[in-house]
RNA sequence: GAGCGCAGCGU
DNA sequence: ATTACTATCGACGCTGCGCTC
């Protein structure tokens, strides 16, 4: 930037000129006026130990970087200890009570300054504050729109009169409870920290260049920084003079200095007996030119690394013979490995390195949650000196007895304390905030973000690595690799530049921003703004800023002290009940749409509402009238003109406009991957985050600016605007709104024409936008197909026009397959089902076939032991608290698994993803849940039926809920589940078959309506014969009776078997009466005389069965082929099977089953006898003659039974109901 | 069916 | 209601599972 000073020290003596002085001379850092250019990174207000009775004033330590006097362009770490603070508080003056004649009291003017001053002075004196400065001031009050029920008649108005009170910080801050008086009603900022006072007073807005006026050298260093200064603040002049400020924010800002980051990876091994982690190895990767504004240039050039590994004699991790030599060799190869004789040596060495390298940033994966704690515990145990070198604040005393409580302390308080002065970027924490993953282990993140497979080594394997020198070095390599991966991960996530931008925008502390204090960022943004506008600032959560909230009459709970606010009862982990209503969600018009559906969405709805309606602390009025309990009493600000803009709208306007500027700058950037472009991208993102999180903080009980009425007003307007938009679309434009959620509507264009749909969308868009000034709705997407399932649950095909035709992609919201609490298998099956449902141009029948086939295949695979890997069955659930803290631990699978893990002395972290597999066995679900490792070790068997019934069926059923022909029962049938659980309005035929026993020789004959009849072809004369069954009378009895007349053979009294050629001239008839029987002809081989030999029958039936199976299975194969190639383009099944399209389409599993059963029945002699009984009963009723079944020749009987056995074998393997449909896919034919 | 609890999607 | 230890977390809307009554 052109307007930037080239260097923060412009005008300073050049380094060479002062080279004669000692390197340590701090004055070298000062410019010609004796001022210090200081890049502020972070600050802390260390708590002071009380030394007897004498109190020291508060100290605030600023940590940062200063230009190195020795080397141009380099920077040294520096701290500035600021002293001489005065506490600032504001006493709001009371109004005089005037007694009326009727005895009532009215409140008049403010009490006089003298009166107030006297009382306040006395009050402070009573609290031990002897040096006080006081002055009447006018201040504004941010919560003037709320009614303070505890202070009837003494409401604070927007502008009011206060006494400003200042006293040295050596005196303690005042307790609100002790501050009661006649002349004042409220006290503000009495507990403000000096750090906050400094930041607000000096307008320090996050990391940036400051000019420190005339700092001095300290008598002794309080920090481990390379150089240190001390600054005593001027005595507070009541009127702050800009020239007298001793800390100034530089304007314009020179370029930020690069920082040094150190990524740490530690291998700790738990002691078998105690479970205490001991440090085995520490690796660090250091990068010196790390840019805090964006990606770093030449990152690799400025990287170095080291590893320290320790010997552990008398344990499994001792150095093998000759390790020293190997180590020396490795060192010569450039591998920076140091050995240490003991853990203590290792830790000391490490601290020394830390001190020399003096990193500004520490990067680690779960650094605060694990690594740092382990290091500290071991340093304490081994009595390693100067543990505080981990951070930069010297001589910290940490009370260890307190922290040995339990491992589940989530605040990492001590760790943060020790790290003071070095910023910590925890890749775990950052990732949980910046990306959504199924879990946040280093390996997973490397895989998904860096596309790198990280080799995992568990502590139990360390001893193996210590068997040989080479493998120890390999472990060192891996550890160093981890450190490098963490560094890359942090860079990839842009965690450091992004939090820096956020901190700059908010004017908060970087260390707090890094540890994810989101609400605090908004607090600081508003604190700065309100401070600058001369408002008294709200303190820690307490009710007096907004005592007696309008809606619920909670009076003066706060005075009782203990009463926890916000209803946060005890150890309640689950989310508490909502305090006010939020967004409007429409009931979707459920179903599958194949017309274009438009998604219109308001840009940043809530921030826009704040601007549109000028909603702010400063613009809202007190409710004019009492409203009944629970009703919202506030009115909208009447004035929404731009000149009366409130603070919040103004800030949002600023954020939005800045973002627009950044985005347009980004647009003009030709190379989107350039450093500049990426910096802009980060800035843009930070601006968006800030704008969007403002609303959330208004409703946050713990926020400094907690203002539920504002939050409530915003959501209320949100609901109104969405409803208004819907009405416009439906009533005025006669459109079909099929769904909407908070800030969006989904409109069915009822058209297959994209341009028509777009036109419609644009019309609606412009109509809506006409209604608003700041609110903007936009077409957020066009779906060529959408399956609306439930509120917040849908699957859609996004239609976009690319340079070469339409580009399709999925949008999947809320459905089970996007959630991590279903096993992978379930998600995969759902995926296939969604693929089918959303595929293009596929008939309803094809969809049904395809999904049924998928399910049958899944069931078959699952029921085949070992076909599905355990990982596919693992169900994942997070531990949201320590296992012990769960109420009924015994009924929750993930908790049970965690408890057992604890029992085995394995660490269990809060937030960890517990994997479990449901196994066969007795008891409740939780008792059948085991971790994958337990399953393997104990040889347990997964409960396949559980998975089919509870993991596959419900999600698929939900997806198919609106698809006719794929009701729950059909899906259950396809999965081979008990269909009785589902209402039997569904497939009655399937139901009928479901109850059928295979051994039953009396099937329901009408069920063979749709089977293909069996045609035999005489092997001798090639005549084709439709095979009626064992006897001719059976011909018309397989399906519903037809009106057709009986043929001669069917009604013949003497029923001869039907296994004979119909051609009278056939040679088969030449041989004896029965034809089929080779009755011992001497001239011809017996077999050749048969029309239908048994071998032929079996082959024919076998072939037919195989054909049907193939026909059935081919549907599946086609789907499978599809999956591998084009996700969205499914070739319809009919394309491949045009000649037999109908057959294929209708060829379901039950059809196949019936076909097989039919074949068997045709040859079933016993069945024939049953059927003749039935037939004779009917004939008797109708007065027809009785049929007499003629005995079968032995050979025919053998043929018949042979075929029956053959078909039965195939049927038995393929139990269609409740057993196993899978062998239908067995393509081998006997 | 209600209650409780758990999970974590959605805006 | 914390910036020294009980942790501390932006809001609300919605579905789905398991257990007990
Ligand atoms: Mg939006
Ligand atoms: Mg939206």
UniProtKB/TrEMBL annotation:
Residues 1-30, 1042-1085 are annotated as: Disordered. Keywords: DNA replication, DNA-binding, DNA-directed DNA polymerase, Metal-binding, Nucleotidyltransferase, Nucleus, Transferase, Zinc, Zinc-finger. GO terms for molecular function: chromatin binding; DNA replication origin binding; DNA-directed DNA polymerase activity; nucleotide binding; single-stranded DNA binding; zinc ion binding. The keyword Ion transport does not apply. It is an enzyme of class 2 (transferase). Residues 1006-1225 form the Zinc finger DNA-directed DNA polymerase family B alpha domain. The keyword Metal-binding applies. Belongs to the DNA polymerase type-B family. This is DNA polymerase. The lineage of its organism: Eukaryota, Eukaryota incertae sedis.
């Amino acid at each position: 930037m052109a307007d930037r000073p080239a260097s923060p020290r412009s005008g300073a003596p050049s380094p060479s000129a002062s080279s004669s002085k000692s390197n340590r001379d701090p004055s070298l850092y000062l410019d010609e006026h004796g001022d210090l250019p200081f890049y502020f990174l972070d600050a802390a207000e260390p708590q002071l130990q009380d030394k007897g009775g004498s109190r020291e004033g508060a100290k605030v330590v600023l940590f940062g970087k200063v230009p190195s006097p020795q080397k141009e362009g380099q920077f040294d770490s520096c701290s500035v200890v600021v002293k001489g603070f005065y506490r600032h508080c504001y006493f709001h003056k009371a109004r005089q009570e005037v007694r009326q004649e009727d005895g009532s009291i009215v409140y008049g003017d403010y009490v006089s300054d003298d009166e107030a001053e006297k009382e306040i002075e006395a009050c402070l004196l009573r609290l031990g504050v002897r040096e006080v400065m006081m002055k009447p001031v006018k201040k504004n009050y941010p919560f003037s729109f709320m009614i303070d029920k505890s202070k009837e008649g003494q409401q604070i108005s927007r502008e009011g009169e206060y006494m400003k009170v200042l006293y040295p910080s050596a005196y303690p801050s005042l307790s609100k409870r002790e501050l009661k008086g006649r002349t004042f009603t409220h006290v503000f900022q009495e507990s403000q920290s000096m750090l906050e006072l400094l930041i607000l007073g000096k307008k320090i807005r996050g990391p940036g260049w400051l000019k420190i006026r005339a700092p001095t050298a300290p008598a002794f260093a309080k920090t481990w920084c390379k150089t240190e200064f001390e600054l005593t603040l001027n005595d507070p002049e009541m009127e702050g003079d800009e020239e007298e400020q001793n800390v100034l924010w530089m304007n314009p800002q020179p370029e930020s200095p690069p920082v040094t980051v150190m990524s740490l990876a530690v291998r700790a091994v738990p002691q078998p007996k105690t479970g205490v982690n001991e440090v085995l190895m520490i690796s660090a990767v250091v990068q010196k030119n790390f840019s805090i504004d964006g990606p770093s240039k030449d990152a690799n050039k400025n990287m170095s690394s080291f590893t320290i590994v320790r010997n552990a004699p008398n344990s499994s991790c001792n150095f093998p013979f000759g390790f020293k030599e190997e180590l020396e060799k490795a060192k010569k190869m450039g591998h920076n490995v140091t050995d240490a004789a003991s853990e203590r040596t290792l830790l000391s060495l490490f601290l020394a390195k830390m001190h020399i390298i003096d990193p500004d940033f520490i990067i680690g994966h779960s650094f605060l949650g694990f690594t740092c704690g382990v290091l500290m515990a071991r340093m304490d145990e081994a009595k390693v000196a100067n543990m505080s070198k981990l951070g930069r604040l010297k001589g910290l005393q940490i009370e260890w007895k307190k922290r040995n409580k339990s491992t589940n302390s989530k605040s990492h308080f001590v760790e943060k304390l020790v790290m003071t002065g070095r910023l910590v970027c925890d890749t775990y924490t950052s990732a949980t905030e910046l990306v959504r993953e199924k879990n946040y282990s280093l390996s997973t993140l490397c895989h998904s973000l860096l596309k790198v497979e990280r080799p995992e080594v568990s502590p139990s394997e360390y001893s193996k690595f210590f068997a040989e020198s080479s493998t120890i070095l390999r472990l060192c390599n891996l550890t160093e690799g981890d450190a490098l991966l963490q560094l890359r991960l942090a860079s990839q996530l842009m965690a450091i530049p992004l939090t820096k931008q956020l901190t700059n925008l908010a004017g908060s502390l970087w260390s707090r921003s890094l540890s994810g204090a989101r609400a605090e960022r908004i607090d600081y943004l508003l604190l700065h703004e309100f401070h600058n506008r001369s408002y008294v600032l709200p303190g820690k959560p307490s009710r007096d800023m907004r005592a007696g909230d309008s809606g619920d009459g909670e009076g003066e709970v706060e005075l009782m002290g203990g009463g926890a606010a916000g209803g946060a009862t005890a150890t309640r982990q689950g989310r508490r009940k909502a305090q006010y209503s939020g967004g409007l969600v429409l009931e979707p018009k459920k179903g599958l749409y194949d017309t274009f559906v438009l998604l219109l969405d308001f840009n940043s709805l809530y921030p826009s509402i704040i601007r549109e309606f000028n909603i702010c602390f400063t613009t809202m009025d007190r409710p004019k009238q009492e409203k009944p309990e629970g009703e919202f009493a506030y009115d909208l600000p009447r004035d929404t003109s731009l000149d009366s803009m409130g603070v919040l709208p103004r800030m949002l306007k600023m954020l939005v406009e800045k973002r627009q500027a950044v985005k347009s700058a980004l647009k003009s950037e030709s190379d989107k991957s350039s450093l500049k472009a990426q910096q802009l991208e980060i800035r843009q993102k930070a601006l968006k985050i800030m704008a969007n999180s403002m609303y959330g903080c208004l409703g946050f009980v713990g926020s400094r600016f907690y203002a539920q009425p504002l939050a409530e007003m915003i959501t209320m307007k949100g609901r109104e605007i969405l409803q208004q938009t819907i009405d416009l679309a439906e009533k005025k434009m006669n459109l079909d709104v099929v769904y909407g959620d908070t800030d969006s509507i989904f409109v069915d264009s009822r058209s297959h024409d994209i341009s028509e749909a777009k036109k419609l969308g644009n019309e609606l868009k412009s109509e809506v936008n006409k209604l608003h000034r700041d609110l903007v709705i936009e077409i957020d997407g066009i779906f060529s197909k959408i399956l609306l399932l439930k509120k917040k649950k849908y699957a859609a095909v996004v239609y976009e026009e690319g340079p070469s035709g339409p580009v399709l992609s999925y949008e999947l919201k809320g459905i089970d397959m996007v959630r991590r609490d279903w096993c992978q298998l379930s998600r995969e099956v759902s995926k296939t089902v969604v693929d089918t449902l959303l595929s293009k141009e596929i008939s309803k029948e094809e969809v049904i076939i395809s999904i049924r086939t998928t399910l049958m295949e899944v069931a078959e695979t699952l029921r085949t032991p070992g076909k599905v890997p355990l990982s596919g069955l693992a169900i994942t659930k997070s531990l949201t608290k320590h296992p012990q803290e769960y109420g009924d631990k015994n009924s929750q699978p993930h908790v049970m698994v965690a408890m057992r893990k604890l029992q085995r002395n394995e660490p269990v972290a809060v937030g960890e993803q517990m994997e479990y597999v449901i196994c066969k066995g007795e008891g409740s679900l939780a008792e059948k849940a085991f971790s994958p490792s337990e399953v393997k070790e104990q040889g347990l068997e997964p409960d396949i039926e559980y998975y089919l019934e509870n993991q596959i069926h419900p999600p698929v059923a939900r997806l198919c809920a609106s698809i006719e022909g794929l009701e729950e029962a059909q899906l259950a049938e396809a999965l081979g589940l008990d269909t009785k659980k589902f209402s039997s309005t569904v497939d009655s035929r399937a139901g009928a078959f479901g109850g059928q026993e295979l051994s039953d020789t009396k099937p329901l004959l009408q069920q063979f309506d749709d089977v293909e009849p069996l045609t035999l072809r005489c092997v001798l004369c090639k005549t084709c014969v439709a095979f009626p069954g064992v006897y001719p009378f059976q011909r018309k009895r397989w399906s519903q009776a037809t009106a057709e007349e009986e043929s001669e053979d069917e009604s013949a009294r003497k029923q001869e078997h039907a296994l004979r050629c119909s051609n009278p001239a056939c040679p088969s008839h030449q041989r004896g009466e029965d034809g089929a029987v080779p009755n011992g002809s001497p001239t011809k081989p017996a077999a050749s005389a048969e029309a239908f030999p048994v071998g032929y029958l079996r082959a024919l039936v076998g072939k037919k069965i195989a054909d049907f199976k193939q026909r059935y299975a081919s549907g599946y194969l086609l789907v499978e082929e599809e999956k591998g190639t084009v996700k969205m383009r499914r070739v319809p099944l009919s394309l491949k099977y045009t000649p037999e399209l109908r057959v294929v389409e209708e060829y379901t599993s039950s059809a196949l089953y019936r076909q097989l059963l039919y074949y068997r029945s045709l040859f079933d002699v016993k069945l024939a006898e049953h059927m003749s009984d039935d037939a004779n009963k009917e004939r008797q009723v109708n007065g027809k003659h009785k049929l007499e079944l003629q005995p079968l020749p032995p050979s025919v009987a053998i043929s018949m039974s042979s075929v029956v056995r053959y078909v039965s074998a195939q049927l038995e393997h393929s139990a269609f109901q409740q057993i196993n449909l899978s062998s239908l896919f067995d393509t081998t034919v006997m």
